[in-house]
Design goal:
Layout lengths: L29 H25 L3 E8 L5 H8 L8 E5 L5 H4 L5 H4 L8 E5 L8 H4 L20 H20 L2 E9 L2 H13 L9 H7 L2 H15 L6 E5 L3 H16 L12 H5 L1 H10 L2
Parallel strand pairs: 1-3, 1-4, 2-3, 4-5
Length: 293
């Protein structure tokens, strides 16, 4: 399989989504992709065990993308070998009454991973500058001062939210959270094919919602606001990665490779050393346990 460079997907300057590929050709068959994926997933699982014992950093992995972009299956496959005690997955849906009683970032703050753990956000705090921009009437549910109607939501309102999100991410990074943000870049045609499969295959019917077709009609609006959000919030310490998502297997491998390469840079992540007294008495502890037989 042709090697990939994770940096090729990292947003370091202004991008136009229409210029970026939704499919990556790597000259590999499914077996080669599966072997490469298995190898890197095993490495990540071992790293997660060490990170859990180290208990100094946490990792937040954020996934955004249009419906059918493969987020759920990607999370399942990339993190399938992780110890469940070291990982928490949160899937953010429409805010409930309790969540709307707080500021829009509150529910994301309280879901952040503890030190030593991976936290997965399947749909993220970026919904608050994506879905709400396509459907600005949703902002009215937040009961914000000075916002009585959609007409009160100015361009400055969205600029302020982008700044608040950058500050949110800057704060958690400075306090030991390593942040990855992945946009699953799906083509409109591939989404059409995946929606058709949901209708054609009985065991996938449950995944389909007529609302998927309504949102699909707003594709261009979503692309515009995704592009603006990515450009406004991809920073050195909390970068965005735009991952070609038409090939699910390759998308999973790219995400795993990006996380693995970045985490290898944290050379201080290591299993804690035993204190000298315990280390000096390991043989005695072993002998004590063997006597019990």
């Amino acid at each position: 399989m042709r090697p990939i460079n994770p940096d090729d997907f990292k947003v370091t300057k202004k991008i136009h989504l229409s210029d970026l590929p939704t499919h990556l050709h790597v000259n590999a068959d499914d077996d080669e992709k599966e072997d490469a994926m298995d190898a890197i997933v095993e490495k990540l699982s071992k790293l997660q065990d060490v990170m859990y014992a180290h208990n100094r950093y946490s990792v937040l992995v954020c996934f955004q993308g249009m419906d059918t972009s493969g987020k759920d299956s990607l999370i399942r496959e990339v993190f399938k070998q992780f110890n469940p005690r070291g990982m928490v997955v949160n899937s953010f849906k429409v805010p409930n009454t309790t969540e709307l009683g707080h500021d829009y970032l509150w529910r994301h703050y309280i879901a952040l991973p503890e030190k030593g753990k991976f936290g997965i956000f399947n749909r993220t705090h970026y919904e608050n500058v994506l879905v709400t921009r396509v459907h600005p009437e949703y902002i009215l549910n937040e009961n914000l001062p000075g916002i009585e109607s959609v007409d009160d939501i100015t361009p400055q309102f969205w600029e302020n939210r982008m700044e608040q999100i950058r500050n949110f991410e800057k704060h958690i990074v400075q306090n030991g959270t390593i942040v990855f943000k992945f946009y699953m870049h799906l083509s409109k045609e591939e989404q059409r094919q995946r929606l058709l499969r949901r209708l054609e295959e009985n065991d996938h019917n449950w995944k389909f919602s007529p609302g998927d077709l309504k949102e699909r009609l707003l594709w261009d609006d979503y692309m515009k606001y995704y592009e603006e959000a990515i450009n406004a919030t991809s920073t050195e310490k909390a970068p965005w990665f735009v991952v070609p998502a038409d090939d699910k297997e390759m998308a999973r491998y790219i995400v795993a490779a990006i996380i693995w390469k970045a985490m290898k840079q944290y050379t201080d992540i290591a299993e804690p050393e035993l204190d000298d007294e315990v280390k000096a008495n390991l043989k005695a502890y072993e002998a004590q346990l063997r006597k019990e037989t």
